[in-house]
Amino acid sequence: MTQSDSAPSRKELESTHKELCDYRDRLAADVLAMGQKLKLPRRMVEQNIAQHDELNQLEGVLRQLEAQIRTMTD
Predict the structure, then answer these.
(1) Neighbours of 68 (CB within 10 A)
(2) What residue spans define the domains of the chain?
(3) What is the Cα–Cα distance from 69 to 38, expressed in whole angstroms?
(4) Each residue of 42-60: pLDDT tens digit?
(5) Cβ distance 59 to 24 under 8 Å?
């Protein structure tokens, strides 16, 4: 089996991208909701979201997926 035989299809990459975007959005919403429950200033919550390790990691993976999808042909 060659590398191209095991490479994910464009559809699989797009599906994965959507799932990760949905997860990222839910995670950010959870952080925001927790900040509201704790009555933290919105600016502080937004700063926490911007510095959240898992969210930053997700952004990196999403950028890689987007680049990979752009380079694929249908």
Answers:
(1) 14
(2) 8-70
(3) 40
(4) 999 999 989 999 999 999 9
(5) yes
